[in-house]
Amino acid sequence: MQNSIPCLFMRGGTSRGPFFNAADLPADISTRDSVLLSIMGSPDKRQIDGLGGAHPLTSKVGIVSRGSKPGVDLEFLFAQLQPEGDTVDTSPNCGNMLAAVVPFALETGMVEPHGDTTTLRVLTLNTGMQCDITVLTRDGGVEYEGDARIDGVPGTSAPITINFLDTAGSVCEGLLPTGRVRDVIDGTQVTCIDNGMPLVILRAADVGRTGYESVAEMNADTELKACIERLRIACGHAMGLGDVIAKNYPKMTLVAAPREGGSICTRSFIPHVCHDAIGVLAAVTVGTACVLDGSVAQGVAVMAGASTRKVSVEHPTGEFSVDLELDPANPHNVTKAALLRTARLLMRGEAMIPASVWKGTAQ
């Protein structure tokens, strides 16, 4: 016998996975995690017995509920699973999966559309960050087709605008968790920063790489990956994150001068696999480093001075543009981060869970 939970399988940005109404999942966290591991087919390299896609970007889960705080329309809990791991990490945010939250809520009747466009305030329970998400609802439902294009996703879709309201110090104590814009850790110059995602930024040249290597080359470079992991562990302690060996953060981003007309070129590890693109909040955080005087991005990034800056972050499959609004009185204070994503409902149905894992009682 198996038990079932209603779910929508959705793409959010360059990620995808099943989305659930929080009320349909077990309230006990340990049981919930066992259910999610079973649904995704982890731990298994191919996730052959579940819905996972054998990659960290397709081993993600979204859990949505109505807002319980004043001014908040929806609450979102992101869960990161790993193909070969047996853990469910709800510590970091995911800006890509975030793009599918409002479409999920509209599709399931959790909220109603507000006209041609619907803007809802979403609280990410992972870190307490809030954002306003706008989707097209011209015909009374979610509009998925349109002319918006994001690198890493084929074709075009309707635009989804995400305006982050308070990203600094999402997991760490502040924007610059070490108290400095640049540090030397394990013999390497780094900028440890958290503007939506704990990130360690380093120049590719400082670890003997160009920063233009392909994803396959990066993933096959065992010497580099070992070096990056040693650095990540050391930076985790410096950032006040403790022992990060088993954690999915901080992410590691190598930067180099842009070569496709953007602001900066990146290769991101999430944290042990090189990203085919770059995460939403990682792009926001890299963009923030580009406007901070003294960061490791200085002298590498190509920027034009203005109170509102568009940072074009190049990655292995294209670029990701982030609009940053700076406080004129304090150029190190980013007051707004806005960006464009897309999403699509791929399938609706029920996820099946063996009775040996879960007896079928949500609450």
Task: Please tag this protein with its features.
363 residues; alpha+beta; Diaminopimelate Epimerase, Chain A, domain 1; 16-stranded mixed β-sheet; 6 helices; 16% helix; 34% strand
| Total helical segments | 6
Proportion of residues in β-strands:
25-35%
Distance between the termini: 20 Å
Largest beta sheet, briefly? 16 strands, mixed
Stretches where pLDDT is under 50 for at least 5 consecutive residues are none
According to CATH, the homologous superfamily of the largest domain is: Diaminopimelate Epimerase, Chain A, domain 1
Number of strands: 16
Q: Any overview of this molecule?
A:
- This protein has 363 residues and is α+β, with helices and mostly antiparallel strands.
- It has 2 domains: 170 residues, Diaminopimelate Epimerase, Chain A, domain 1 (Roll); 150 residues, Diaminopimelate Epimerase, Chain A, domain 1, CATH 3.10.310.
- Strands 8-9-10-11-12-13-14-15-7-6-5-4-3-2-1-16 form a 16-stranded mixed sheet, with helices on both faces.
- Helix 1 links the parallel strand 2 and strand 3.
- It is globular.
- The two termini are 20 Å apart.
- The model has no long low-confidence stretch (mean pLDDT 94).
